C-alpha cells in the first residue's frame, strides 16, 4: 500500500479514529494535512508522531462544522501542497435523548455537523481532484448506527445513513474522474470519548461480548483507510465497509448447550 508522493487531508485528526487514520496513512508514505478544531490540545502530538515517521505534515485548525471554515481549510490545504490526493472525512457530533423529547435545534446541529459538513468538505476536495486530473480517494467515516436503529440516537443515525447514501451518489458521479468514494462503518472503537460515557469496567465487560472479544482500535480503522486510499483499492468505489469486529452480529451467535 505505497502512498509515496500522496497528500492526505484528515479531519478530526487530534485523537481517536482521525488520529489512527492519519498515522496509518503516514506509515504507508503519505504526507499529511491534519485538521482539528481551533485550540485542539492533541493535534500537535499527532503531527509530531507523523514527522517522526519521516513524513511531511502540517496542522490546519478549523471548525469543519462551519461552511466558511471548511472552505478556508481547503484553500489553506491546497496552498500548502498544491495537491490533495486523499480525503478522510471524519466530522461527527452526537446527542442521546428520547425521540419525543429530542430538541429540534440539536437535531439540526447534528445533521449540520455530520452530513452537511461532509458534503461541503468533500465537494471542495473533489473539485480540486478534478482540476488535478490525477484521480483521488475520498473516504467517509460513518458508523454501524447508519444501519442499526439505536434508541435515543435518532439524529446521529439519520446523519450517518444520509452520509452513506451521499457517498454512494458521489461515487456514481465521480467515477468518470477516477475518484473513488467509499465509506467505513466503525463499530465500537476504543477512543478517549468512550471513557467520557462509560466506566472502564463497563467497557471491558462489553468488549468480551463482541464476536472478536475486544473493542476496535483507531489503528483498525486507519489500516482500512490506508487500504482504500491505495492503488490496491482502485477498483472499489461506492462501497460501505463495516469494520466492527462483528458488532452488529453480537446477538446472533448460538449459545453452547
Automatic annotation (TrEMBL):
Protein keywords: Oxidoreductase
GO molecular function, a single term: 2-dehydro-3-deoxy-D-gluconate 5-dehydrogenase activity
EC number: 1.1.1.127
Name recorded for this polypeptide: 2-dehydro-3-deoxy-D-gluconate 5-dehydrogenase
Any matching Pfam family: adh_short_C2
Organism: Gimesia maris
Highest rank taxon of the organism: Bacteria
Xref: InterPro entries: NAD(P)-bd_dom_sf, Sc_DH/Rdtase_CS, SDR, SDR_fam
The family this protein is said to belong to: Belongs to the short-chain dehydrogenases/reductases (SDR) family.
